[in-house]
């Protein structure tokens, strides 16, 4: 399954109520066929702007990040269920990029001077492909409009 991150902002509430909200959100993930990988607490912070949710204005929130695996077909249902929760101020689901491609790199390649490294050579080759013609003065005007006395060219 694909790994997703669910970023949730909970309204300000006592710790006991916050724990029940976290469990309720985790159960919603389980009920949609998901697996919870990690739960990270980012703390209680001021929101960057006033957020209006469920008829209330929130200026502070508790930030949490769930790392989970959920079938893509169930994401919309999960998002809809979380949107109905009155304790959640804002929620966003991101697809987590797992870069499994690791380039082999040796110390010998990194210690070479910049012009001899492969990645620098590739950048230079790409830049040469993008060479554009340079600006040519004398653009078929018989004078330079930027000069005060309109120097005429013959």
TrEMBL record:
GO cellular component, one term: cytoplasm
Pfam family, one: Ribosomal_S6
InterPro entries, per database record: Ribosomal_bS6, Ribosomal_bS6_sf, Transl_elong_EF1B/ribsomal_bS6
Family in the record: Belongs to the bacterial ribosomal protein bS6 family.
Protein name: Small ribosomal subunit protein bS6m
Record organism: Cryptolaemus montrouzieri
């Amino acid at each position: 399954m694909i790994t997703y991150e669910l970023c949730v902002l909970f309204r300000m509430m006592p710790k006991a109520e916050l724990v029940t909200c976290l469990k309720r959100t985790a159960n919603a993930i389980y009920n949609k066929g998901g697996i919870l990988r990690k739960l990270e607490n980012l703390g209680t912070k001021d929101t960057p702007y006033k957020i209006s949710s469920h008829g209330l204005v929130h200026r502070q929130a508790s930030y949490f990040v769930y790392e989970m695996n959920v079938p893509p077909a169930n994401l919309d249902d999960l998002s809809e269920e979380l949107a109905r929760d009155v304790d959640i101020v804002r929620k966003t689901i991101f697809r987590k990029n797992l870069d499994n491609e690791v380039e082999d790199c040796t110390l010998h390649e990194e210690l070479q001077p910049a012009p001899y490294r492969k990645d620098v050579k590739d950048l230079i080759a790409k830049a040469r492909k993008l060479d554009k013609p340079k600006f040519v003065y004398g653009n078929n005007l018989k004078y330079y409009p930027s000069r005060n006395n309109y120097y005429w060219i013959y």
